[in-house]
């Protein structure tokens, strides 16, 4: 295992002295065997104000696992409302709420059946309004997960489409498929779903196949139908009217497919990818199609309409796990304020200073001029940092996240340095994990990073009063939890995170230029610099 050694030199000079925050950061790093060298030049130069989404940490709350208020073992909106102090404590001014829409929960809300309604498991529309009002009364912002890639098969549009109701007939992607010599029908092409096997599902009732890039219970919407675009735009308007401050647009890569359904995707001969798996194909016809641009541009237009009305900027961020950096950068031009940058998500234990540098430079050098960078180190689809990198790297990774230029996004629990939990096959909830069976589920299941938040040392770590929670609570919760980390005399990931998050309010960290400094196999260091009289460490 390579190490990113932290080397820390400190120096305070110039007009502005480092406050207590700066000092506690230094101590924090030293006591953890510093692995990052941070050199800052602070200054007082006034600059035009940045927008809220540029100055705030975006904090992702996975509603099922944040806080349960009604004792059913699943988190809910009133639960989140009761925990807003935590967001204030870590100075996260923007809450990104993962799906709370009505859903049969086959993919835990990423399979909405009605995106303008709240699922009863999370509460009611009143609960939502109360949560939003509380968020706003604290001067914080709230953004919603928006899921354009598909709906649930129980959605009334799909039900109507399946039944051939004229108005809804083309809301989804339907085809007759190919006729074989013996008179049966087969899918028109070799496209695969993310979960493996054909992306086409036969429906007796309509005598046609429909496309599903995810589960068969998640039929893909047909964005070539202007009515669909209008419906989705109206759904965004519905939430904007309720007062939300922006959206994280899920899975934009798969919004469109080639209009020509006879095109087979080429094999990519990836080692280890079996033919039934999504990974075995080069997704040139089902991913990253140019038409996506127009739809996102339309949503930008809508967001700006609200911005002009009340002066409150409406933020759009897209989610796309791109094959190439050029693809990723494309989404900066679609009207989104930024596409999520997953380069740091894919770092692992073998990654030393050079490798960290490559990941960071990849974004910084390819980003279009005038655009705003951003960093993500974890989310509900990926392993926890502490599991991926080792617990000793939690502070270093959070330091990168919070002090690099641009907007940081933190998935709930990463501020505590939480590790993945072990989930048995019997307890496995994630459909992706189940799909792989008892032998291989652990390779892909997304349950381990989705376990409940650890608040304190009481029953279920204060998450729920239920005897059984939807996923197991981390076994170490009695000693490892937010309250304990807050009260500890020493440096804890949570206190460190808070200090960094406050330090990030310095103009230098918000607006300063960035350049890597000493970089080798063992060290990654960088400079943030702002014009003016400087002080440096
Ligand atoms: C979604 O739910 C709302 C509130 O129950 C209802 O008015 C609306 O018709 C539903 N929309 C769809 C598409 O089912
Ligand atoms: C018809 O042909 C297809 C392939 O051409 C084959 O997969 C299928 O099993 C055949 N069905 C019958 C009933 O023979
Ligand atoms: C279906 O037919 C089209 C043209 O008729 C062909 O290009 C395509 O490869 C066929 N698909 C499959 C899966 O055989
Ligand atoms: C770790 O990261 C390196 C460099 O990006 C990559 O080549 C390697 O496949 C990764 N290893 C694992 C186990 O993910
Ligand atoms: C659990 O029950 C106790 C006692 O009734 C109550 O004070 C507490 O708020 C409940 N906590 C949750 C998370 O429901
Ligand atoms: C990129 C991606 O996978 N996006 C989402 C699309 O929908 C699926 C299935 O609901 C989600 O799991 C993904 O996060």
TrEMBL record:
An example Gene Ontology biological process: carbohydrate metabolic process
Residues spanning the membrane: 21-42
Domain of life where this protein originates: Eukaryota
Domain Glycosyl hydrolase family 13 catalytic: 60-450
SMART domains membership: Aamy
Keywords from the UniProt entry: Glycoprotein, Membrane, Transmembrane, Transmembrane helix
One Pfam family here: Alpha-amylase
InterPro entries in the cross-refs: GH, GH13_cat_dom, O16G_dom_2
Protein name as catalogued: Maltase 2
Species this protein is from: Lingula anatina
Organism phylogeny: Eukaryota, Metazoa, Spiralia, Lophotrochozoa, Brachiopoda
Encoding gene, per UniProt annotation: LOC106156167
């Amino acid at each position: 295992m390579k190490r990113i050694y932290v080397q820390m030199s400190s120096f305070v000079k110039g007009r502005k002295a480092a406050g207590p925050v700066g000092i506690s950061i230094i101590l924090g790093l030293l006591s953890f065997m510093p692995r990052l060298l941070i050199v800052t030049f602070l200054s007082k130069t006034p600059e035009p104000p940045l927008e809220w989404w540029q100055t705030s940490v975006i904090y992702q709350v996975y509603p099922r696992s944040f806080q349960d208020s009604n004792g059913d073992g699943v988190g809910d909106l009133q639960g989140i409302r009761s925990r807003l102090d935590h967001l204030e404590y870590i100075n996260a001014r923007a809450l990104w709420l993962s799906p709370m829409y009505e859903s049969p929960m086959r993919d835990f809300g990423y399979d909405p059946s009605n995106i303008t309604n709240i699922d009863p498991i999370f509460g009611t529309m009143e609960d939502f309004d109360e949560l939003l009002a509380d968020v706003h009364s604290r001067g914080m912002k709230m953004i919603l997960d928006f899921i354009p890639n598909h709906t649930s098969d129980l959605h009334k549009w799909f039900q109507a489409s399946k039944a051939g109701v004229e108005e809804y007939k083309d809301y989804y992607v339907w085809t007759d498929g190919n006729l074989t010599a013996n008179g049966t029908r087969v899918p028109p092409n070799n496209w695969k779903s993310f979960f493996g096997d054909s992306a086409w599902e036969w429906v007796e009732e309509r005598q046609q196949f429909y496309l599903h890039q995810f589960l068969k219970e998640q039929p893909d919407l047909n964005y070539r139908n202007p009515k669909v675009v209008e419906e989705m735009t109206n759904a965004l308007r519905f939430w904007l009217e309720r007062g939300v401050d922006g959206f994280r647009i899920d899975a934009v890569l798969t919004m469109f497919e080639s209009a020509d359904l006879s095109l087979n995707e080429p094999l990519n001969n990836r080692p280890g990818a079996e033919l039934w798996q999504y990974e075995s194909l080069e997704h040139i016809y089902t991913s990253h199609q140019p038409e996506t641009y127009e739809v996102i541009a339309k949503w930008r237009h809508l967001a700006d309409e609200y911005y002009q009305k009340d002066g409150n900027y409406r933020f759009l961020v897209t989610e796309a796990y791109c094959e190439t950096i050029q693809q990723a950068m494309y989404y900066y031009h679609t009207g989104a304020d930024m596409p999520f940058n997953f380069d740091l998500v894919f770092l692992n234990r073998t990654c030393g200073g050079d490798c960290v540098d490559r990941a960071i430079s990849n974004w910084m050098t390819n980003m279009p001029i005038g655009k705003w960078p951003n960093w993500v180190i974890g989310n509900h689809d990926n392993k926890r940092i502490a599991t991926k990198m080792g617990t000793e790297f939690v502070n270093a990774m959070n330091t990168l996240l919070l002090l690099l230029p641009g907007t940081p996004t933190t998935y709930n629990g990463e501020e505590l340095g939480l590790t993945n939990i072990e989930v048995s096959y019997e307890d496995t909830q994630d459909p992706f994990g189940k799909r792989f069976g008892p032998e291989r589920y652990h390779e892909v299941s997304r349950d381990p990073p989705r376990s409940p938040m650890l608040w304190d040392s009481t029953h279920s770590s204060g998450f729920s009063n239920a005897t059984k929670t939807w996923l197991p609570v981390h076994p170490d919760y009695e000693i490892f939890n937010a309250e304990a980390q807050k009260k500890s005399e020493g440096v804890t990931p949570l206190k460190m995170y808070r200090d960094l998050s406050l330090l990030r309010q310095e103009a230098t960290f918000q607006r300063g230029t960035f350049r890597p400094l000493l970089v080798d196999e063992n060290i990654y260091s960088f400079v943030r610099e702002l014009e003016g009289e400087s002080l440096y460490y």
